[in-house]
Write a structure and sequence with these properties.
This protein is of the alpha+beta class and 347 residues long. Helices cover 36% and strands 23% of the residues. It contains ten helices and 17 strands. Helix 7 packs antiparallel against helix 10.
Length: 347
């Protein structure tokens, strides 16, 4: 009987990070400390979210971010909390944030790492008590140690990530991350103030029966995407869309499925941001056995040209993503054939 109440509580995030660091004889601890800084900030954000309705930080802040989107009060709070944690932690020389137009120089020129972050994804869901999240990517800087961060440091391909992850604030708070050796999830125990390993070695199923897309934009999607949605309906897949990228991605990570945010007539280059949303989740998806593309290219191979670059996004179970690509390719072939035919006639 007592065994039930005295059983081990599990492996804490700090202990897990320390154990993994010991596997690398040349590790000096900076990346481990950086992950701890992000975890600390996420605990503060978790607290702010849980009391948002009582502390008056729900709703819009009355200004727009660089994307022209209305900032929520919690967007601003989360951006400040993560920026401060990374500045004071001392391991980050520069930050790219969804909420800021330009590079944030942390004042730590001797730090080795760059962080790209969406401090609070899906923040408009706060007002209706629906889950939200944080997404982050970590890169090694390219510029010389001791100098200010540069655009070259920021505009790196996703393959250059040394770590990536997300925090999900929902019925429980979870931190999921990878350093390139698999994906592990940790659940927050608020009474102890610690993250505990709860989902070791996370894997995406090869296929599933969940598709996640905002079908309100159906008639603005490319024909191949519409055909794939019709196929999902014919197969009686379940349509599940929360409107929080982290939430939809996390569900499909656990249950199998595909998340799609395609190019549309309004957002012809896609809407989601490459650096601090798609690269991180693509890194995690591939580490878990999944697949991520923009409809034709592997997301992690796209060379960024601007901080807030957008991209279409297809991510999840590999067989489902490949099936969606097949539908897109079917659409492309007749278009190319028609174009070729017109060229021959005109000549």
């Amino acid at each position: 009987m007592l065994d039930r109440f005295t059983a081990p509580v599990g492996t804490t995030l700090d202990r897990f990070i320390a154990q993994k660091q010991e596997q690398f004889p040349y590790a000096t601890g900076e990346l481990s400390q950086l992950l701890r800084d992000i975890a600390l900030a996420s605990k503060i954000i978790n607290r702010e979210i849980n009391r948002a309705g009582l502390s008056g930080i729900e709703g819009a802040a009355g200004q727009e971010n660089v994307q022209g989107e209305s900032q929520q009060k919690l967007d601003v709070v989360a951006d400040v909390r993560f920026t401060r944690a990374l500045q004071k932690g001392g391991e980050t020389c520069g930050i790219v944030s969804e909420e800021c137009d330009n590079i944030i120089d942390t004042g730590n020129p001797h730090a080795k790492y760059i962080v790209a972050i969406d401090p609070l994804d899906g923040s408009s869901n706060i007002d209706v008590n629906v889950l939200v999240g944080t997404i982050f990517s970590i890169y090694r800087r390219k510029s010389p140690i001791g100098t200010p961060p540069t655009m070259q440091d920021m505009l790196q391909e996703g393959t250059e990530q040394v770590a990536a992850g997300y925090v999900l604030y929902g019925s429980s708070t979870m931190l999921v991350y990878s350093t390139g050796y698999g994906v592990n999830g940790f659940t927050y125990e608020p009474s102890l103030g610690e993250y505990f390993l709860s989902h070791p070695g996370m894997k995406i199923k090869d296929t599933g029966n969940i598709y996640s897309i905002n079908e309100g934009g159906y008639y603005s999607f490319p024909q191949g995407v519409r055909d794939y949605i019709d196929y999902c309906k014919e197969e009686e897949y379940s349509g599940r869309y929360i409107g929080s990228l982290v939430g939809d991605f996390h569900r499909n990570m656990l249950k199998g499925g595909i998340y799609i945010y395609p190019a549309t007539s309004k957002y012809q280059k896609g809407k989601l941001r490459l650096l601090y949303e798609c690269n991180a989740l693509s890194f995690l998806a591939e580490q878990a056995g999944g697949m991520a593309t923009d409809g034709s290219r592997r997301i992690l191979n796209i060379k960024p040209t601007e901080l807030h670059q957008r991209t279409p996004f297809f991510v999840g179970s590999p067989k489902m993503v490949q099936k969606a690509m097949d539908f897109l390719n079917e659409e492309e072939e007749p278009f190319l054939a028609q174009k070729t035919k017109k060229m021959k006639v005109s000549s």
